[in-house]
Structure formats: C-alpha cells, structure tokens
Amino acid sequence: MAQGMAFVVQELSDALAAERAIVENERALAEAVGDRELKAALEQMASQDEGHVANYERVLEGLGQKPVKVEPDDRKVVTALKKVAQQGEEELERLSAHALLKHKAVETGEIFHALSQQLGKPKAMKPLDVNLREDRGHAKQLKELSLKLAQEQATAGAGLEELQQAVQA
Description:
- This protein has helices at about 5-30, 35-60, 75-85, 90-120, 125-155, 160-169.
- It is mostly helical.
- Helix 1 (about 5-30) packs parallel to helix 3 and helix 2 runs antiparallel to helix 5.
- It is elongated, with a radius of gyration of 19 Å.
- The model has no long low-confidence stretch (mean pLDDT about 85).
C-alpha cells in the first residue's frame, strides 16, 4: 500500500479520472435527455465539474506532482456506472447511475476535506473545498430531479389511475 505523498497523488489522480468521467457523462446525458430542466441542470453541472478537473490538476501542481496513471482495475465501479449512465435503456436508469458517480465524488471530497483538516488546511488543497461544496449541491439536485422524473413516469396519463387502483386494492 502506498503511503504519504504517493498515496495522496494516487488518490488525487483517481479523483481526477473520476471527475473527467463525470463531465463526460453529464455532457452525454444532457445531449440525450428530453426534459429541459434536467438538460439545463446537467449542462450547468458539467461546466462546474470542468472546474473541478482544473482544481484537481491545480492541487497536484501545487504539491509539485503530476497525475499518475490510474489502472483500469482500480476504476471498475466508475467504468460500470459510466457505461450505464451513457448506455442505459431508460432516462431514470442513466440518471441514477450518474447520481452514484456523483456520490463517489462527494465521498472523495469528504476524504480530502478530512485530510486537509488534519494537515492544517494547506493552501495547495483549498480548491478541493469548492469541489466538495458544488458536488454536494449536485448530488442533492440529481436526487430531486430523479424523484421528479420517477414521479412523472409513475403518474403519466392513464398510469395514474391504474396506480391509484393498485395501491387501494
């Protein structure tokens, strides 16, 4: 297991790769969805997440490091979620897979936040605070949009009457 700086550089590199996958997903999802509100939200998230990519690069540079290669075996979960988010059969399925990727970004941000606190809040790691704050907001927004989409699908047209009859039986 890597220790010290090697560990931090590996984790930052991993987070950078995940953030790039998130941006790619958001762009692909925004292009594919029909709902205007969802499309606008995904486009805004992608713009902010491009800033997150730059922040990870900035942090690595501030530490005097370059990203290291991220092995595909280390990215199995991200790769699987990315595939579902881009190729899932249903909009809600794709959005849910993307929300899980965003949850991973929040979790990673929490880890870096705790590490930064432990190290005395070094200036080099400050850009990651922005990533965490925005990722938390994105995760909340994705949850709200998923719930809205699920509600719309469950109550669409005659489906609402059918659903009401089924739950009252």
